């Protein structure tokens, strides 16, 4: 059985240092300055995915972190780091590189405003991604006459796995298999994900596309309590390659917007997705607004 990201134990590293703040001068207490986890790619064992859980605004700290990871990973054959990513890389990747005044949605990687500067000095940018927002009250995007039915999330680890793989496909990461999908569903279960399956009228029992939605609760925890926030949701979706460019994606998006509107959500966010890719083009054509950019980095060890 192929080992997957979900059952490989990550390599973790955290750094502590004496504070430079004059207020604490003379103190012998060290404070945490960086924490990271790396998981190896099961299909490319020489590649690891870097999850930055915390690091302070200091070039030398990030340098020391990468050096420490290199010492621990090179004996195991890891020669390349890609990041920053979510702990489950398919759910989100890249450092936030614009629109820092907007709270990022759930499942996007930790990304303080100073992250791109320090990451760019020590790693090479390898991909740029866009995060899109869709107003749930916008006009329906149209689409084909398809048969829609409710998604049963537990089927995503079985017969619907190929559909999920279309939703979480990205050039820098392997498509999730059944074990990774179970990990994704465990992560999302507290938010009660739901969605739709799309099938052609002549074959209603053979789904060819899906939309997966769940509420975005990140704003509730990131904004001060005195501030209000708009209710938003997250959307993932895809159509099997042989059935694309037939309006099925637009039909699924229309159903997703209607369901989000019925739940009182003001918007849906999608991505980050590769800039100038098929999903990027599709979302722009359907009224999606690009609001935040992300950059993915790579470095050799």
UniProtKB/TrEMBL annotation:
Domain of life: Bacteria
Entry GO MF terms: acyltransferase activity, transferring groups other than amino-acyl groups
Pfam families assigned to the protein according to its UniProt record, in alphabetical order: Acetyltransf_1
Organism this protein belongs to: uncultured Truepera sp
Domain N-acetyltransferase: 146-301
Name of the protein this chain belongs to: N-acetyltransferase domain-containing protein
